[in-house]
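pasting input
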Amino acid sequence: MAMTDGKRTTLGVGMVGHAFMGRAHSHAWRSVSAFFDLPRVPAMVALAGRSRERAVAAADRLGWRSAETDWRELIRRDDVDIIDICTPGDTHAEIAIAALEAGKHVLCEKPLANTVEEAVAMAEAAERARTDGVRSMVGFSYRRVPALTLARKLVADGRLGTIRHVRAQYLQDWIVDPEFPLVWRLDKDKAGSGALGDIGAHIIDAAQFVTGEQILGVSALMGTFVEERPLADASAGLGAAPAGDRGRGRVTVDDAALFIGRMSGGALASFEATRFANGRRNALRLEINGSAGSLAFDLESMNELYFYDGTEDSETAGFRRILVTEPVHPYAGAWWPTGHLLGYEHTFTHQAKDFLEAIGTETDPSPSFADGLQVQEVLDAVTRSAGRNGTWTAVGDSRAPAEA
Amino acid sequence: MAMTDGKRTTLGVGMVGHAFMGRAHSHAWRSVSAFFDLPRVPAMVALAGRSRERAVAAADRLGWRSAETDWRELIRRDDVDIIDICTPGDTHAEIAIAALEAGKHVLCEKPLANTVEEAVAMAEAAERARTDGVRSMVGFSYRRVPALTLARKLVADGRLGTIRHVRAQYLQDWIVDPEFPLVWRLDKDKAGSGALGDIGAHIIDAAQFVTGEQILGVSALMGTFVEERPLADASAGLGAAPAGDRGRGRVTVDDAALFIGRMSGGALASFEATRFANGRRNALRLEINGSAGSLAFDLESMNELYFYDGTEDSETAGFRRILVTEPVHPYAGAWWPTGHLLGYEHTFTHQAKDFLEAIGTETDPSPSFADGLQVQEVLDAVTRSAGRNGTWTAVGDSRAPAEA
Amino acid sequence: MAMTDGKRTTLGVGMVGHAFMGRAHSHAWRSVSAFFDLPRVPAMVALAGRSRERAVAAADRLGWRSAETDWRELIRRDDVDIIDICTPGDTHAEIAIAALEAGKHVLCEKPLANTVEEAVAMAEAAERARTDGVRSMVGFSYRRVPALTLARKLVADGRLGTIRHVRAQYLQDWIVDPEFPLVWRLDKDKAGSGALGDIGAHIIDAAQFVTGEQILGVSALMGTFVEERPLADASAGLGAAPAGDRGRGRVTVDDAALFIGRMSGGALASFEATRFANGRRNALRLEINGSAGSLAFDLESMNELYFYDGTEDSETAGFRRILVTEPVHPYAGAWWPTGHLLGYEHTFTHQAKDFLEAIGTETDPSPSFADGLQVQEVLDAVTRSAGRNGTWTAVGDSRAPAEA
Amino acid sequence: MAMTDGKRTTLGVGMVGHAFMGRAHSHAWRSVSAFFDLPRVPAMVALAGRSRERAVAAADRLGWRSAETDWRELIRRDDVDIIDICTPGDTHAEIAIAALEAGKHVLCEKPLANTVEEAVAMAEAAERARTDGVRSMVGFSYRRVPALTLARKLVADGRLGTIRHVRAQYLQDWIVDPEFPLVWRLDKDKAGSGALGDIGAHIIDAAQFVTGEQILGVSALMGTFVEERPLADASAGLGAAPAGDRGRGRVTVDDAALFIGRMSGGALASFEATRFANGRRNALRLEINGSAGSLAFDLESMNELYFYDGTEDSETAGFRRILVTEPVHPYAGAWWPTGHLLGYEHTFTHQAKDFLEAIGTETDPSPSFADGLQVQEVLDAVTRSAGRNGTWTAVGDSRAPAEA
């Protein structure tokens, strides 16, 4: 087992899934040790995928030494210390729990699970494994956008004072066209939910992470604008082509989810996740107003953080565009000279770095499975409130109707 | 009476109130005929204010020929054809109804009234007067920001297709400081509500105007962050200084109001009005996503409209910054060469122009008192939903609990 | 004479010309006393224009009490204290000198003159009149954009340290179409020069005003892209329509002028004025970098000033967007609440206010005719350098070839 | 020799230098085959550096199989097909010529050389080798920013019409502090020139690449603001710390270079390269105005291209923000879903991809050494003009004074 083998200088990684997320994670494992000083460096041992042919091709292309067709084989291998789960949400619980029980560290893509029940089981498994030094982490990678990590720091440093407002949106537009096919992300059985779990989960986590507060309760509204779509290849992803003549099927998830709520520190918050914001390709926006200052962020300009310091003289006060590429900024010093931008994929590189460091230093990485469960509970409260005419629904109590 | 006197080339205006709004309206009446060709030009006949000394000084400064201390005197004067109401909301109904019954055209600042009941009475008075050719209009002046008028035109021309999302915010920050005094806008008796009626009314009207759709129902959340403030001079306005040692009083209105809802065309909408968005001085933002395109606007950059044309080839598609100063743009041709900006106050100049034209051409100006009443009903639904744990509340039924 | 008549509370204004600039100045004279407390308020006594019919119509529309067809009549009138010159540059010298000699205060549109010789005569006349208490000022109105006035203040306060770079551009696009007609601004006899004198003069003045430094010398390049255009009505302005079939004439001015130079404090500077920057309607941009900070401005967003404070910690340093509408900002306190924008025309209102204050307090207004002459000398150096293959040409020595 | 060995599926790379550029190139070689389908994939065979200890550590960290202490050893190795030169400019000529003569393909960082003479020799060597199928390319990596590649395409497609203006700036601020030490980039012997060759070379290449035109001649101005600085470790780079007490030395390069010029198609152009633009970390800005449209770009927002289509109706015309992450955009389809940003380093990945493709398909990569020589000639004309009082200096004639 990895933790007890002091002489090894590498940590073997086994990755399950090799689609969009698998490509991004592979790039992170391949790059991380060239930029960061790590206690133990990753070895890209094996990748698992259901089709042997495709798994072998992906392993070859993405830099993995070998391929398996069953994730259980990854868990059995001695040279694998870390299981990295990059599959759709319906498979997370089974894989993660098995891996943890086998003593493998687990990095699991978000959302942690498709249901609160699964997430509870996973968090419990993580807590048991933790007592044996087995680490687990859920992949809310946007915490590792340097601008958002800096945002968290500024809030923690008190630069915003008491938080009054959170305004979070995740706007995409990839299914505006009603002829876009019925990919797995539009299938409730696979994906759990639509915009809500896919991108809404990101803004829930980001808002809670940056403010250091939790969402207490919500009033919600969800909708599906296009209820039937052409059938697609089951494995089709975001860039899928129109589907030809396979007939049509029912969209079983939400196209958009909106909710308003209260944060644990008293702030009023509004959230919106949609795949129908024409022209907004990937606009995760977060704006936070506090008694002493404000912050604004947009993932479409992910190297920038806007900060308003309310303590400045009004003659020169204004939102500052901080280009988050300075040596003093989170993660940025490891990369290029100031002013040279980082791309999307390095949120995963930073995630890999932090996970490897946590393993190497025997500390708990963050966000934990318990954090992932808490996000799942917010998602659940949103779904329940939307089903109850928007009535206020407390987070964390999935059985009884909640009071404000 | 004005309408029957074919020989007059002017229309006498009497204005009630001479604070912030009075100054802005005066500037409009003084400027409008220098820029627009009007069937009948305004004469700034008289201004009314409670203090003689201050009313006389204001009349002199703002260009009014005379001053009265009772608005009833304005209504009695034969040389006054138009009553322009610029006082706090609690006085609107009495003045407007009296003026309409006296056969005076009425321009009334928003919100139309402080309650649905008052607004109903006003709309009924307006409808009665209308049959005698007496015109009335409510001052949602932002409809006359050229960029928002253009936005309306683009939606009406079908450039956005089916509206999917409305995202409206009115963010200010003038009471972030807990020592800012208890001015009349923080007093429910005078102002009716806080951020909701003052600036929330603007985004409700703007969203409905631009989309051409109505808000059907809402789930709402309201809050007051600072519950006690130093007492102030009753007439103090937005720029009031800290109040010295007069003791403290209770804030009886909302500091912020958030709500989500559905539009009559099926769009999902979110609204937020707050005076606690530190660093956002006057950010009325409206973003609309449709099946064919999108629009975005921010009053802090009020000469700009952002338009995304979803029918463009993806190679060059993107949000365009339209500088709304072209001769083909609404109102803009009357002003300066292309690229020369207009300021806040000309929303009132455009409003005066449209009202004078409606009177001159004997047509109904817009927005009508009925439109003002409908906004009042949305405000009322928001308040009721916020009082009922955010439960969905239909607009326009202020007696019975509504269903989704 | 105005200055000796202590009992008068008004100052009579006579304006020459009533086209674009005349409209803008009229709006300023009409508005200024409603917003600013002035020692003496303007009376709009008379306007002069060559055509009686058009002058009378303009006076009526723009709020002038009477009209004259000869500017000499304005000068003769006892009720006129101020002559406001809004005609093309070829007439400035004659009118201004006659007015000054008659003891009238003179506000003259920029550029001061079409040649250095005329400007010298005007500056000398202004200096002679000044000893009798007669005031004169040249209309570089952009000094009164609050954001640029604030920029000057920040530099004067030392917030930028030693100036290293000035980057000034005035980009317009109104003659991109080769069929746009040959209006007077494209005729060297009337306009003196093209983009250089019209808009280049503005950035020269703005750069010198904000930095408090002068341009010492230049290397220049000028060009005319479209050499022949359809003939137009002689009085046609910026918004002229294509000309129909009157034949074609020669463009005798520059379409664009570029120059680089040194400022008196050691900064390196670059300037560009063009009417061929497609899509840039009115982009007067000024960027200044100093050892301690930087500033950036664009007239297309004229209420905003971007300020970089180089003394901030690099964690939160960044260009701040200052919305220049605060009570502490230049001129802004007289207008609307914070966050409410001002338009283009109020640069003229501020200019009128400052000129009236200077007259009322018997102080010298700024920019003086001597300042206007100095700008003319820069224009002259640019023209000469462009005619000498870009060779370095010192400002202020219009006879001999200059050395670096 | 690589080209004749049809069975090899890899191309061995040997890299000289392992500082900032070496790290960037290594990341590219390591990543390129995971994202692009290549005819032959790179093998990271060996890295050369003068210190064995540091070379071995760098090879290990950056993913190279072995390390050499003499670049001549790299050239001698049979398993090396490509020599990648990442050293300061004074060494380029010797290494590149030796490598080409040994039949190795050469990728050489920009600027090609420190003098025109060296660049001529290199271009001649490249031309000789080319006849034997040996490929060479100079590393103007910004041609591979997808937004700039798209800009080139739009110009080539005629979307801008006739180019009227080029406005190019490269603004950095890393030596604003006069106590920043005297690193090699401030030493003329090593670096050839200062801002001019380092970053001015980039905007010269970018402007010529995007427009498809060449700079014909220039008027220039150069300056050094801080003439002495603390001595530093010879290998210190951009992020060097203040130097402690080693004494002071003379800065022998330019801090800033400005020039104006004419393009071969008739456009007027202005260029500025500086390391003293406080607050501008890495602002390579390019703006191009044509008779039919305009483009604007800023490397600090490198995933965005602003495009103005002058053929649009003026009602909706405006600069569009194109987020250059669409499948149809250059290089972008190989990466992430639309709206997910790319970072700085992938300009090098794209460069590696294009170079590998050119080798694999036996075609000439671009930019060639001849292109690099032409940029060197522009740099030379700038330097000579600045030395001759800004007098117009033609590009490409480095012996005789040139005429306009």
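fyi The first strand of chain B starts at residue 10 and ends at 16.
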